[in-house]
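Summary for the funding panel

The consortium committed to producing paired sequence-structure records for every protein in the target list. Below we show the first two records in order, beginning with the earlier of the two.
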Amino acid sequence: MPDNIPPPSPSRRRFVGVATATVAAGTMSRPAFAETNQAITEVVQPAGGDKTAIRPLRVHVPESQLVDLRRRVKATRWPDRETVTDDSQGVPLAMIQLLARHWTTDYDWRKCEAKLNALPQFVTEIDGLDIHFIHVRSKHENAMPLIVTHGWPGSVIEQFKIIDPLTNPTAYGASASDAFHLVIPSLPGYGLSGRPTTSGWGPDRTARAWVVLMRRLGYTKFASQGGDLGGIISNVMAKQAPPELLGIHVNFPATVPADIIKAIQAGDPPPSGLSDDEKHAYERLSINAMKRRGYAIEMATRPQTLYGLSDSPVGLASWLLDHGDGYGQPAGALTSAVFGRTVNGLSPGELTRDDLLDDITLYWLTNTGISAARFYWEIHFNYLLAADVSVPAAVSAFPGENYQAPRSWSEQAYHKLIYYNRPDKGGHFAAWEQPQLFANEVRAGLRPLRQG
């Protein structure tokens, strides 16, 4: 498909029409993803075999794989209970066993599969790798094209609850002028995207690939949004400053001054002269650096060692749940979602146990635990260091983030800061936890770009 062809409509009729027309010209087959995703997808193959074409995709997991998943969970060899009464040694045995019981008895993957297939999903090859993405166009005229990138341990499932509020804002009390056309890709090595077989697929290459994707969909101007790894990619894209990029909105901003990072690495107390917001951010960053980065260090240095992520569903689940802080932030919402109630004063918001299992199960079925971890190995810079970008940028500093970026640091890092806000709730997984609030932040943050 030439890169200047207009984007397809998100309607089911259009999706089926594209699939039918393409099948008539080619064939519906599974081989394109057979190795990458264990034949859990069906991809429309275009006539002529052009892998850069926009190819519709559907998910269908063979029942045998779901039976095998439940068998493996039930066959878990459990360790002894932790020797403490808190979560300081990691994911508590009672917590992971509660999740495992639900996984084998009450959880239904088919509901997630139906949600995926109800959305217009596609795949296209960029720089030699199959990239999966959801593409939903708004019915409103003059909607802004926006590419939204998930993080780890997430997937496109993180964004399910924000799709309608952002593409159909009038149904949520917002203005039609705040509408977006959404493109939500799966990161390389994550979910339904291809698993890289060579090194090099880090933030820089991914950011460039996202620009190619948006061009290929016919978008000549667009904005980028992200949290966690998605925030890193949005920041990198802003530094690359392609002419198509209108601006970015990040809820995992890179704002920390170099001298602050140096002091934290040295284990020093907060420097004198910090404001209250800056001192609070310093304290949070110091705690994270000292106690909560074990998982990230392992993935950044030895991701291939994590064979248990491919062999044990429970091993995978516990790894994806643990951010080194358990009942604190940023994983507090995950913990509360597992228990189905507020834990340690931290509400799960709209995040549910099934939401978590949708995400974890997608990792399992696509065997992407290790390939996702390798993305950390591909990051060769401190992603908290002040971004130093001049592209228009909006920052939402949620209170439950790894650190709540102060306005002063944000103004130094983003030279054209068009929006800054500190919502009163929400954390690291803001789109999952507080989708309506998150959608409001994205609308407000990027609204100045529409007025320019």
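The next record, for a separate protein in the list, is shown here:
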Amino acid sequence: MKEKSCGCWLALARGIKGAAAASCGSSSLSAAASANNTKASPNTLPRTSLVHDAASETRYLNASNRELTAPEETTLATEILKSTSINKAYCQLLEFTFQELKSATGNFRPDSILGEGGFGYVFKGWIEENGTAPAKPGTGITVAVKSLKPDALQGHREWVAEVDFLGQLHHPNLVKLIGYCIEDDQRLLVYEFMARGSLENHLFRRALPLPWSSRIKIATGAAKGLAFLHGGTEPVIYRDFKASNILLDSEYNAKLSDFGLAKAGPQGDKTHVSTRVVGTYGYAAPEYVMTGHLTSKSDVYSFGVVLLEMLTGRRSMDKKRPNGEQNLVAWARPHLGDRRRLYSLVDPRLEFNYSIKGVQKVAQIAYYCLSRDPKARPSMDEVVKALIPLQDLNDMAKLHLRSRAPSQRGKLRR
């Protein structure tokens, strides 16, 4: 294994300086673009009030499904100047050479691609157990290698955030960052391999439905990951909680991935962090989108959206559905507190293979997580405590239907 020195963060900082310099030449263009876009578009969301009303929220819920990318609040150079400490946790990360990772992934061959993000591809590879040397496919340790596009400046910022947070944070429900590579314009990250891919794939892209028991297990694990982030002495707001960022191992244990948008939470007497608005419509909390004020309750809202996706089998935003059903929250929230209408929300692919009490409790948790008032939302610790008992329920709807008269069976179908 290579020896590590505590100067690895300095290596990252040197890489950023070059990227920051490249951005300086574009500052005048950014200013001109900003001046030319002072007039609000029809989809512009208000960001002036700390309290949003139902009408403003409706505008948010009906917005198109696109990435939230407001202008940068600070340059990369400024951010580096603020980063003066070198954390010893970074020294636990392995430093790979580009050639090692090229060999480990079979020259980044197309058939090794696991997925593609906004800033590059993720490849499957193999490394030796006790070091950074590449291994033959099927031997050593299986890893996932994320490669950043060389020209992705914003991607570099998020790349650094990944190292910043996952270099320090370790928990069973967070994906493990093994190491990194930084050579010239090459930026790569090496993670543990998650055999079953993302929750998004299992919910929306597989022919067979994800079993109810697996959904509860995944929801509980993901909630534990968020609770860990929020509960530390220096809380972290994940800011990008969505189905595609929840990865699953071979036993369906959930782990949060992609910390590129994570943000240090408020400290001391501060109630929120004021920041640029990033994320994805349909998952981001309305008050955050409209004010730029970020709190841990923003993550709680996003968790509520994903919980709805697991309950219904529907995407948070789906323009292919009829008007009134395209935004999952807007469509489902009115039904969550009504037991007579609740079962019409349940993913029909489950075919009554779900717990009746479990569905009721999941709907209740989602309802409170999606509260319009952030202060009324539960903490993630409270969510975890509510979810854990649901893993042991065996009151399956299918068994319940068999014991009822035919005239009563339609009640669960409505």
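Regarding this second record: The chain has two domains: 8-25+74-192, 199-413. The chain is about 40% helix and 15% strand.
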